[in-house]
What we know:
Elements: H1 4-7, E1 32-38, E2 41-47, E3 53-59, E4 62-68, E5 72-80, E6 95-105, E7 108-117, E8 121-129, E9 140-147, E10 150-162, E11 169-178, E12 189-196, H2 197-206, E13 214-215, E14 217-225, E15 228-237, E16 265-269, E17 279-281, E18 285-290, E19 297-302, E20 310-315, E21 325-334, E22 338-347, E23 353-363, E24 368-376, E25 382-390, E26 397-406, E27 424-425, H3 447-458, E28 475-476, H4 478-488, H5 531-535, E29 553-561, E30 566-574, E31 586-590, H6 606-615, E32 623-627, H7 643-650, H8 652-667, E33 677-681, H9 684-695, E34 702-706, E35 715-716, E36 721-722, E37 742-748, H10 757-767, E38 773-777, H11 784-797
Parallel strand pairs: 8-11, 31-32, 31-33, 33-34, 34-37, 37-38
Antiparallel strand pairs: 1-2, 2-5, 3-4, 4-15, 5-14, 6-12, 6-15, 7-8, 7-13, 7-14, 9-10, 10-11, 16-26, 17-20, 18-19, 19-26, 20-25, 21-24, 21-26, 22-23, 22-25, 27-28, 29-30, 30-32, 35-36
Helix pairs in contact: 3-4, 6-11
Amino acid sequence: MKFTNIKKIIGGAASAVMIFSSVPFTASAADQQERGNIGGYDYEMWNQNGQGQISMNPSAGSFTCSWSNIENFLARMGKNFDSQKKNYKEFGSITLNYDVEYTPRGNSYMCVYGWTRNPLMEYYIVEGWGDWRPPGDGAERKGTVTLNGNTYDICKTMRYNQPSLDGTATFPQYWSIRQTSGSRNNQTNYMKGTISVSKHFDAWSQAGLDMSGTLYEVSLNIEGYRSNGSANVKSISFPTSDDPDDQTTPGTEVKEPVQADENGYYFTETFESGAGNWSGRGSASVEAASGGYDGSKGLYVSGRTDKWNGAAISLDTSTFIPGETYSFGVDAKPDSAASMKLTLQYTDSSGTDIYDMVAEASASTDWVELSNPAYTIPSGAKNLILYVEATDSLTDFYIDNAYAGVNGTPALVSLNGNSSTTTVTTQPSNGKRGDTNEDGIVDVFDLAPLRRGILNMMSGAGTVPPNSNVNGDGVVNVADLVCLQKYLLGAEKLPDPVTTTTTATTTTTTIRTTSTTTTTSGGGSASVKLNSKIKNDMPTTVPNGAEKSSQCKVEKKSYMCKYTGKTKNCNVILPPNYDPNKKYPVMYVLHGIMGSENDMVNGMGVQELMTGLMSSGQAEEFIVVTPNMFTSKTMNSPSGINQQTCAEYDNFLYDISDSLIPFIEENYPVKTGRENRAITGFSMGGREAIYCGLMRPDLFGYVGGACPAPGITPGSDMFMHHPGCMQESEMKFRDVGPEPAVFMITGGTNDGTVGTFPKQYSDILTRNGVDHVYQSIPGGTHGADSVKPHLYTFMRYAFK
């Protein structure tokens, strides 16, 4: 790509060869963004909305840039470590030397910039700025550190549901900001120095910031916001020690080429954890989304305004050498019939941009394979970009199973019958077919290990877990994943196993189910959908008089949890005028993370609303049970807010179905059957209520969640990446019972803890055709001001 084209961009005009990226921002249709690698250095230029006049001219270890009248602009260059999947400590001492002429005119700063993954985090080491010192007054101060002769303030800020490496996410930002700027506004500043990057990371860790993730990149970044300016980055380099005198010659460092794995692949990408190194091309945007080839995730390409718009990945010429032959491929599926094409864009020796076909195929709306096992990169080619496009249509499309390999390497997952590793010999069965996490239960938690195992086998990176031969045919492949998904959804039973002389006999064991009486003694029908009525009757504040001083009685109870083999506690809230000779329906109300059975007893209006609504006749009389959701075989209490803790809360699904409901029905005069059971909760309790409702519609006729926490589907928040209890396409009711009469989700517009995740759940349900209600509380936070309006409506419509 010619950089002379970029200098001519003014306002919304854009070159037809601009490459858009999901890193670090999600570009809109008007953004300009370019990425590449030159002399072993990765670089990026981004200009929001294509506004103003911008330029970037990169060379090996240096670049110049300028900007004026822009909204937001950045130019950066450095090293990308993502493919190595290592923590920063595994790289030894990372040091960056710089020599820069920097001229800010307004809001701008010069820094070292990058990300970590797992957990997701964005970082800045700020050396100088113009008229505004980042990150502003709202940052959380974490102390100071003195390095390389400068003292830096350590800060933390949060980004909620914002664009990131892995799509829209919630993540922290870590900062080191020099107490005295190395630059002044409205003048050219001659800045030369050393940044001991690893020592900043060490200081952040010592300040209590989480530095356990894998390092994505270390880059020198020039950024401007609604300002003018320029920079001449004369050199950047990465010496092997922190000694400022131990500097490599700028531009002489050579990036180590990526080595092919034992199966011949230089890279494989199934988009299970995000877009990877793929980005949108032209106006297209890309995101990892449900709808991939194997029923899990693929890369969804949308927003195309021209036929050459699509999905692209840059190829490093230190690995993909011009004149050499390689195998490239990807599977593609358009939303409407189109000619799909895999193309290599490169710059020839004369500086002309060339577009060379690698593979093409016509597609209706089915998956097609775009692969070429013997494509030769033209000699002298530079700025290599591999991309997928639809050459005769503006249709949106998916891609999946992308790869690059040595000459002759077969497709990662072939649609033409030449796949190299799509099946593997079954592993020994240690129990039930499908119980891949070996917890003795076949459930949705077995999907993720099976999916990872199959993907690992296909890429030659490992083995599948035990009990993966779900369909019993003696081999493990994608068919087993589909079989398990259909089984869990209740669509089909597990097939009888096929016994051969090379495969151990597999024993079929039926998944455990709850023995629950479905006969009723009056009460609600749970068959008449009430969601449409609720939509016209869900006030965002609790009306005056709806809450009254509690006349309820609370009883503390203990019961044996069959899943853990331990005793657990719950509170039973009896309604006003409770009569032990009368039978009542039951509402299970669940607490937030790190909480207990006591959290929802007081402060959230449960007793007050029960008293007020029942005494006025607006709600049926019912019993409320507030359990302790934490359900762990090995732990007595949560270890912190992390993936393990969340997984133990997800185990509550087994506790409530196998132990808690039977205990309540044995010890209290309650009506049985799904039409007499409701479940809702707050925060983590909202997540678990929705999850239990989706998984067991045979148990609950009324389902709700207030400010539900992330994690039902994959996503990231301020604490961690959630692998998800199910994929987005799976977020619908299992075919083991009718849908509930009430399905209600509530979210506050000012919820700084779970952000927009409640609305995201609602959007997923809408896409999946699930009837439900979404209640938005204007100004509602993560607390009672959102929970009480939810309970006010949910209690009035339960058991009708």
